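During the second year of the project, the team shifted from modelling isolated chains to modelling whole assemblies. The rationale, set out in the original proposal, was that interfaces cannot be judged from single-chain predictions alone. As a representative example for this report, we include one of the complexes processed in the last quarter. Its constituent sequences, exactly as entered into the pipeline, are reproduced here:
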Amino acid sequence: METGFPSPAQGYEEKPLDLTTLLIKKPSSTYLMEMSGRALESVGIYSHDLLIVDRSGNPKPDSVVVAEYQGEFVCRVFKKGLGGDYRLVGSGVPLIEMSEDVRIIATVPYSIRRLP
Amino acid sequence: MILHIDCNSFYASCEQAFRPNLRGKPVVVLSNNDGIIVALNKEAKAMGVKRGDAYFQVKDAIAEHGGEVCSSNYTLYADMSRRIHEILVALCPAVEPYSIDESFLFFPPMQRIAETAGSIKHAIEESTGIPVSIGIAPTKVLAKIANKLAKKGNGILDITEIDIDRTLKGYPVEDVWGIGYRTTAFLADKGVKTAFDLKRYPPHAAKKDLTIKGYYIVQELNGISMIDRIEVKAKKNIIASRSFSHLVTSLPELEEAAADYCLEAVLKMRKQRSAAKSIGVALMTNRFRNDLPQAYDNIAYTLDPPSSFAPDLVRLALKGVNAAYLPGYKYQKVMIFLSSLVPENCLQHDFFAEDKSKERSLMECFDKINSKYGSHTLFIGAQGIAKTWSMKRDFLSPNYTTSWADIPKVK
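Output from the structure prediction step:
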């Protein structure tokens, strides 16, 4: 026995929005990292922010990238210099010229911050 | 064509992928309880370190070279293995995982297969930071040989592009996949020393002298694929999965299926007297139904120490289903993976040995009843017995990909 009225929304239901599918396009190549330090404050990334890091694909100019440099992971902006060569740039940290000692391993499509 | 994909120094490479300071440095991975070396990278090999060496023998030398000694972190390795599997499944319609770091891929005959192999290699290395090599051949046995040779070159080798016989003449018969210690001794008496000699073994004599399995190996060396017939004695992985007769949306139904498949896998594993170091659960929707929302999730847990105890494994399988399940999706398939299997009698003995022998006799009783009265006579009802085992893992790396507290930091 049915009681009440059938929902007028029946047949119109859709999946609720899911942040994971928005933020992580390629799960198998995506990792999460944590920013430590102030090198990217100029682009709005602060210490302890969560970084979505995708190892697949190549960086575009001005994208935020993760690189292996001097035995550590660093997060910087991938910038084209005046001479056309690329370098890794941050605020208050030395510029990193591209060389064999620098390996860009991933791009950072999103960062996430908890507000106070 | 068959591609055999093998990760280079997989455990060590997983550790290095998250520690840039270890690039180019020797890395060794220890067995459970930090006893002996079970895996090492080429830099450690170059120092003369060998599998089976004790930790204390090498620790100083490794440190001097700026390298690292790691406890085995199967949680990390299982997650990286899962990622690699996902990448392979997206690139090839037929993937057969063989172990935590090896898979066979089956392709229809095609032009420029090496190019395809190149893009697969690139995709894995880019997405995970783990180097792989790929052997290409018409059979599994030849693909394994091609892979060994590929490791010495640029990482990809198509055996049909080289002089096969010349290669096989330089390839020791004991290194052929499936040829064990005893067969090697038997063959040596007959003057069969290289893979080429074995290839020339008369097929009818092979059947008689080497059993049916040896016959298949001879056929595969001759380029005749015996794919589904080669059974490796003790499998390193056991997978139990089935597609449902109808798409399933309810969690209790999925739980029941997972528990059922898990028991099936445990039974197979116990038959070969192995224990698992890791258990994985995958839930997937029907990917050919473009009209339905798609979901795929794969959860893995580490077992410390390795376990063949059904209640523990079923409990984890249920936990995995609950973690992977998304309401509203129509599921097609549940898969249970028992991986990194080790021989049961080789388990490191531990403080609670007495407890474990009770578990073992319980499981033996369980197996006997089920084999006598049918596989579902006894089954796991309540949640399993939780036991907190502790193990020595002094050099355990963080769970970079599965624990919020452990995600890598960048400067």
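Chain A touches chain B through 27 residues (CB under 8 Å). Chain A has one domain: 22-112.
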